[in-house]
Amino acid sequence: MSDAPAYNDQLLARGRAIKALLLDVDGVLTDGGLLYSAQGETLKRFNTLDGHGLKMLQSAGISVAVITGRDSEPLRARLQALGIVHARYGIDDKRPAAQDILTELQLDWSQAAAMGDDWPDWPMMKDAALRCAPSNAHHEILSRADFVSRAQGGYGAVREVCDLLLSANGLYQAISAKYAL
Q: Which CATH number characterizes residue 64's domain?
């Protein structure tokens, strides 16, 4: 059986209360780079580690929501493939959108974790019970985060948050055992 990653007691205590994970996209679920096709379509690269982590989190009863300043068909297709139904696109002020999602889920900020990488994400992050950032986030966000992943955005940073939340809720070992780890 696989051992769960080691986290400090305070982080695990915060993680136990989490019922929803709020995520930015560019710089969190992606590496923040924007690729444009000859037709002007924005292309995005997603990490399968993050995707599998999000699926495991949802199967454990933790809701996942995405709030992003951009909108694109590739993004919508990826979120649909992951089963993420709570998403807001083209959002400049992310806090009201996050509040709307929490209200829909009948949750409050004490039950939310949020992950962002830059200033526009801070309003969504500041009241969350667990504030997370990828290792390559802007220094102002890094200094305010409760948890900073070892991985950069788009390279497994979200998976690290998923593993933390699964560990905090005592589910990491049971889920990893399903894969004979």
A: 3.40.50.1000
